[in-house]
Specification:
Blueprint: H1 2-10, H2 19-29, H3 31-39, H4 48-59, H5 61-64, H6 70-88, H7 93-103
């Protein structure tokens, strides 16, 4: 298929600046990533799940103008992102955050990733 699309552009069967030609060029520049998608059944072709998860953040953007400072706004954005990850993995954000506060002081720097929501113990997930 890749060779067919390339041939269509090279032989000018499709004009490169036409909408179809632009679509073919776009596809060819991302061909390797597209092939990864087709070989791994867990990957989704769209990002609708993530877009729906971050929708509350996008809807509240005007409210973030009143965070007090740029640093506080970044902190809030980080928390919203972590809570969205909790929702994505069906984790109670309050339980997860309590767990993090209990474990963070004794965690080694190289193991902090274990405290991220996606690595939270399944036994503590919401029922």
């Amino acid at each position: 298929m890749q060779s067919t699309l390339t041939e269509m552009l090279l032989t000018k069967k499709v004009l490169p600046k036409s909408p179809f030609g632009k679509a073919i060029a776009y596809t060819l520049t991302r061909w390797q990533k597209l092939c990864v998608y087709t070989t791994d059944g867990i990957l989704q072709i769209d990002n609708n799940l993530i877009e729906n998860a971050i929708r509350p953040v996008a809807l509240g953007r005007k409210n973030y103008l009143f965070a007090g400072s740029h640093e506080r706004a970044q902190d809030a954005a980080m928390l919203y992102s972590l809570f969205a990850t909790c929702r994505l993995h069906n984790i109670n954000p309050e339980h997860w955050l309590t767990h993090v506060f209990e474990k963070i002081n004794s965690a080694k720097k190289q193991n902090l990733y274990q405290l991220l929501p996606q690595n939270y113990d399944a036994n503590f997930k919401q029922q």
